[in-house]
Amino acid sequence: QVQLEESGGGLAQAGGSLRLSCAASGRTSSTYAMGWFRQAPGKEREFVAAISWSGGNTYYAGSVKGRCTISRDNAKNTVYLQMNSLKPEDTAVYYCAARYSLERITMAAMWDYWGQGTQVTVSS
Predict the structure, then answer these.
(1) Sign of dihedral through CA atoms 77, 3, 84, 70?
(2) Which residues of the chain are under the pLDDT cut of 70?
(3) Would you list the DSSP string of 73-118?
(4) Hey, which residues does 34 pair with through a beta bridge?
(5) Which strand ranges, in their side-by-side order, compose the sheet holding 68-73?
């Protein structure tokens, strides 16, 4: 089992930046990919970004590509999501997720472990 805990959410102005963190605990000796999803009120959970165990491969949703950077520090069992040029439409609860492969990464149902989420609110 892997436990995930997000932090770093909050209120930001449009054009600003936030950095989300996700700390993993539990079975962290296993190799696993990490990802971020988000869910706005009344909408389905959507893929934001993912990163392979080594960090050598990263994937982004088109809506955030060029504005967000996912990274990880395996020594700290932590993955980060740096979000720049924030837009009001980025407002959502952001969830950290983990899994053991990177097949069909945009499908939330394919991910094995989830954090509780952290709220990001972007004001215009």
Answers:
(1) positive
(2) 28-30
(3) ETTTTEEEEEE-S--GGG-EEEEEEEES--TTTT-GGG--EE---E
(4) 51, 98
(5) 2-7, 18-26, 78-83, 68-73
